[in-house]
Amino acid sequence: MHALDSTTARRSERLLQFALFITSAFWFLASDTVAGHASRGISQRLSLDASRPLLTSIFLLFLLAVGFSILQGIARRSSSLREVLGLPKRPTARREWLLGAALGWGLVVLAVLPMALAGTLDIQFWTQSRAFGLLLLNLLTLAAAALVEEVAFRGYPFRRLIEAIGPVAATITMSLLFGLVHVLNPSSTWTSTVVTMLAGLLLSVAWLRTRGLWLGWGFHFAWNASMGILFGLPISGINDFSSIVETRTIGHFGLTGGNYGPEGAAFTAIVLLIGIAILLRITRDYAWHYTYDPIVPAGYPMEAPPPAAHVAMEKQAQQAAAAAPVSQTSLVQILPATPQTRSVVDEPKP
After folding, report:
1. pLDDT band for position 322 (50/70/90)?
2. Between the CA of residue 291 and those of 71, 210, 211, 243, what are the distances in Å?
3. Interaxial angle between packed helices 52-74 and 156-165, expressed in degrees from 0 to 180 and rounded to the nearest 10
4. Does the CA dihedral 260-240-112-127 come out positive or negative?
C-alpha cells in the first residue's frame, strides 16, 4: 500500500510539473504579444523606433518574471526571483558568463573562417558618428534578447519539463521547439531549422552542466553579437544589427547560409557539434560542483547508550574522587624496566 501511494504521488507531481510547463509556454506566447504591442506604442509616441527591439525585450523579461513567479507560488515552492529565472547568485557567475561568451565568439569565427578563405564575403564599413550610437544600442538589445530567450526556453519552463519527463526527453523536446520557433524567421530553411535545433541542444547542455543560465546567456549573446555586429552577417535571417560592418555573402549555400546567415549553412551544424564537445570538456568542474547529488544521511543511529549499571558506577567513582581529601592523594612513580646503571657504551653492537 505504501509503494502504491508513493507511485501515485510521483505521478501526480509529474502531471503538475507538466501542467506548469504548458502554462509557462502559453504565458510566454501571450507575453511576447503584449510586449510587442507595448513597445510599438511607446516607440511611436516617443519617436524611438530604433529602440523598439530593446523595449520589447525589457517588457517581455518583466512579464516572464511576473508570470513565472506566480507559477512558482502556485507550486508552493519558495524561491528567489533570480532562482525562478534561472540566474542563481554564486561566485562563479561572471566567470561562467565570460566562458560562454568566449565559446560563442570562437565558434562564430570557426563558422565564418571558411567563407573568408573562399572569398565569399563582400564587406562594407559605415563609419559615420550615428553608427557608433547604433553599435551600443545593438549590443544592449542583443544582450537583453539573448537573456529573454534563455529565460523563456532554458529557464523556468525547461526545469518544469525536466521534472515531468526527465532531462534527456526534456532536452530533446526543448531543442526541437527552439528550432521550430525560428521557422517563422525570414529566409528560413530546413537546414536552418536543424542548425537552430543543434544550437538549442548546446544551450540546453550548458544548463544541465551548470544548473544556471549564466554560461548559456554569455554564449547566446556572443554568438549573436559576433555574427551580427562583428562580422555584419544576418542573425537568423535578420539584418537589423549590422551597424559599422555590413557583409554580403556570395558563394555556396551550404557554406554561407544565404540570406539567413551562417545559421542556415550546413557547415555550421558541424561547428555546433564541435562546440558541444568543447562545452562538455570546459564545464567538468561546474558539473562536479553544481550537478552532483549531495549525500544525505539515512538509516538508524548506531550509537548504543551505555548500560545503566555502568553509568551508576562512573557516577559513584566521580563522587568518591571529589570527596577524597587532597592529603590522601598519593603519587605513583613508574620506573623504567631497563636498569639505569648501564652506560651508553654498553649498548649492544649491531
Report:
1. low
2. 24, 7, 7, 40
3. 40
4. positive
Query: CA-CA distance, 238 to 220, in Å (whole number)?
Result: 15
Q: Are 263 and 235 in contact (CB under 8 A)?
A: yes
Q: Which residue, 53, 27, 55, 242, is CA-closest to 156?
A: 27
CA 199 to chain centre: 14
Question: Residue 235 gets which letter from DSSP?
Answer: B
Q: Three-state SS string across 119-151, please?
A: CCEEEEECCCHHHHHHHHHHHHHHHHHHHHHHH
183: helix, strand or coil: helix
Distance separating alpha carbons of residues 92 and 279, to the nearest angstrom: 16
pTM listed for this prediction: 0.80
Residues 230 and 245 sit within 8 Å (Cβ to Cβ)? yes
In contact, 267 and 255? CB cutoff 8 Å: yes
d(CA 83, CA 155): 9
**Cα-based angle 148, 104, 190 (whole degrees, multiple of 5):** 75
DSSP of 186-206, one letter per residue? TT--HHHHHHHHHHHHHHHHH
pLDDT, tens digit (0-9, with 9 covering 90-100), for 120-135? 888 888 878 788 888 9
Residue whose entry in the numeric block shows the C-alpha cell 501511494: 5
Which ranges constitute the DSSP H helices of 50-189? 52-74, 81-85, 93-118, 129-150, 156-165, 167-181
Give the cell for residue 176.
Answer: 526541437
Domain limits, the chain: 2-291
Helix, strand, or coil here: 286?
A: helix
Cβ atoms of 182 and 192 within 8 Å: the answer is: yes
What is the dihedral sign for C-alpha 297, 302, 308, 313? negative
The DSSP secondary-structure symbol of 249 reads E
Q: Are 264 and 258 in contact (CB under 8 A)?
A: yes
Tens of pLDDT, residues 262-307: 999 999 999 999 999 999 999 999 888 888 765 555 555 555 566 7
